[in-house]
Amino acid sequence: MTEQSNPQQLISLHNVSAGYEGRVVVSNVSLDINSDTFVAFIGPNGGGKTTILRTLLGQIAPMSGEMSRLPNLKIGYLPQINDYDLQFPITVRDVVLSGQLDGNRLFPKKATLDRVDELLHFAMLDNLQDRPIGALSGGQRQRAFLCRAIMGNPQLLILDEPVTYMDKVSETNLYKLLPELSKHMAIVLVSHDIGTVAGVVKTIACVNRTLYYHPTNRITDSMLKIYECPVELVTHGAVPHRVLINHHS
Amino acid sequence: MIELLQYPFVVRALVMVLLLSVVAGFVGTCIVIRRQVFVAGGITHAAFGGIGIAYFLGVSVTAGAMLFASLTALAIDILSRRKSLRTDSAVAIFWSLGMAVGIIFMFLTPGYTPNLMGFMFGDLLTVTRSDLYIISIIAAVAVIAAIIFYRPIMYTAFAPDFAKLSGWPVAFISSAIAVVSALAIVVAIKAVGIILVLSIFTIPPTIAGMFAAKLKRMFILSTIIAVVGSLAGFVVSFAYNLPSGAMITVALVAMFLIMKVFKYISIRQKRNV
Ligand SMILES: Nc1ncnc2c1ncn2[C@@H]1O[C@H](COP(=O)(O)OP(=O)(O)OP(=O)(O)O)[C@@H](O)[C@H]1O
Ligand SMILES: [Mg+2]
Question: So what's the architecture of B3-198 in CATH?
Answer without folding.
Answer: Orthogonal Bundle (1.10)
